[in-house]
Amino acid sequence: MMVKTEVHEELRERIEKGGAEKYHQKNAEKGKMFVRDRLKMLFDDDIDIEDAFFANCMDESLPADGVVTGMGKINGQTVCMMANDSTVKAGSWGKRTVEKIIRIQETAMKLEVPMLYLVDSAGARITDQIEMFPNRRGAGRIFYNQVKMSGRVPQVCLLFGPSAAGGAYIPAFCDIVVMVDGNASMYLGSPRMAEKVIGEKVTLEEMGGARMHCSVSGVGDVLVSSEQEAIEYAQKYLTYFPENFRSKPPVKDPIEPEQFEKSIRELIPENQNAPFDMYELIKRLIDQNSFCEIKREFAKELITGLGRINGQAVGIIANQPRMKGGVLFHDSADKAAKFIQLCDAFNIPLVFLADIPGFMIGTKVERAGIIRHGAKMISAMSEASVPKISVIVRKAYGAGLYAMAGPAFEPDVTIALPTAQIAVMGPEAAVNAVYANKIAELPEEERPAFIKEKQEEYKENIDIYRLASEMVIDDIVQPNDLRDHLTKRLEAYQSKNLTFTERKHGVYPV
Amino acid sequence: MNQVTASMAGNVWKVVVNEGDQVESGQDVVILESMKMEIPIAAETTGTVKELKVNEGDFVNEGDVIAVIE
Prior knowledge:
The complex is a heterodimer of chains A (510) and B (70).
Chain A lengths: L1 H15 L4 H9 L5 H8 L6 E3 L15 E8 L2 E8 L10 H17 L3 E7 L7 H4 L6 H11 L5 E10 L4 H5 L2 E5 L4 E3 L3 H8 L5 H5 L1 H8 L4 E3 L2 H12 L25 H4 L10 H8 L6 E3 L7 E8 L2 E8 L10 H16 L4 E7 L6 H5 L2 H14 L4 E10 L1 H5 L9 E4 L4 E3 L3 H15 L5 H15 L2 H6 L5 E2 L5 H11 L18
Parallel strand pairs in A: 3-4, 4-5, 5-6, 5-7, 6-8, 11-12, 12-13, 13-14, 13-15, 14-16
Antiparallel strand pairs in A: 1-2, 2-3, 9-10, 10-11
Helix pairs in contact in A: 4-6, 14-16, 18-19
Chain B lengths: L1 E4 L4 E6 L6 E2 L4 E7 L2 E6 L4 E6 L6 E2 L4 E5 L1
Antiparallel strand pairs in B: 1-8, 2-4, 2-7, 3-6, 4-5, 6-8
Organism (chain B): Piscibacillus halophilus
InterPro entries (chain B): Biotin_Carboxyl_Carrier/Decarb, Biotin_lipoyl, Single_hybrid_motif
Protein name (chain B): Acetyl-CoA carboxylase biotin carboxyl carrier protein
């Protein structure tokens, strides 16, 4: 017995150390932590329960078979996780690696708790392919499980290193992907493979780097500069979420918003065409420091993020007039669609802040499928059955009104600020469209006066008090009262219980 | 050297800096007019405006170079 205990302890120590010392050093040089240190930092205490610690222990070179799986607590909430150990064969997947990941996913599904993926892996071990690739419980099952878990429990991916080939789909199926600048990457084929197969010469950073994915492809959601920042983001992000779709997000103690000299009223320009910074409005509406933005670097003309209003978690979707005039593009519509789905899946109320001249027009966006992507956003927004509040901050023109949860899309309320303007198009465009021939016939010196007169007429016709009188909007709220108003509405709508429709599922314009 | 590019298609409404001016990162270089909106285009780095590639009234496409900052 004595001998066995010694062997056991020796083995345990060896496995806990992970791979060879030189790989630890290599990682440290890149600012990468050892997998067990990451977990220690992530969890309230440390990993509480570890599964299959001894996986592949007969092979000395593969401690834990290159992945740690188990459970721990974050903000007091139990979560399941898998974490690649890149000191063990570059975090590659063998038969037991895959089986461990599948098992912890199954546990997360049974317990209905969040699942975290700490990814740092070179992909499949080609030498083990028959055991880990094509079979029923091969790597494909990981993705199948992810799809099955989606919307049932939060799935978070922290990307610390590469996520290559098939492995790149782990992040793709998560609710959110946090990427460490400089180290994290995602790609189906490496630069070496790209050069061999299609003759393209490209760097890893350009093709699949964190910055590219968070600002261009949109596969990444949050760009951070260090592993610690990634972990802190995940900890904050999870405070907005219930453990699964059956419960509601935790309510925190209310905190007053950050105080500024300029009030909301002074912030919003009356000239509909002049830009202002929508972040300034958001800061004045939400509890101080409660903003947790998603896709900050991607499609910046639309802001999406989680926040709290008087302690209550909300998802904010806001046009940003400071960027591209706040016009919706294919990428911003796509960004909105995913964010709306995320909030709706986990019972987080939605607040839309509309200041939008419409969807972008022109050849470039038509070829990019703006109609399809716009439809995707409108579809997700329509289907969302959480409390849905539409605030018309300034203009809401054309399909822009629709996309931002306009009255026809059954928001619980449409609130307008006095600066709101709802119309098929703005006065300039409308007068042009209606009177183009008339204007052309007029002598040039008479044109400006005529245009001005018609624009004024048009503005009167779409006056926001007229729309309130017609009950198109439910209320006109003074800008400085907006936060209090939202607080009351959010409280009142807490018991909302709506089944959107009955069917297997829609045929979405994905 | 850093290029300031148009974030979307539109007309150059106002050029708000001159060649040789010192600009800060985030400072507006030109204001486009597109979709009836004013679209400020800001420098992404701090430096000197080496070259302005557009005039007021020009049409620019998404991605066109507006200015070069050094």
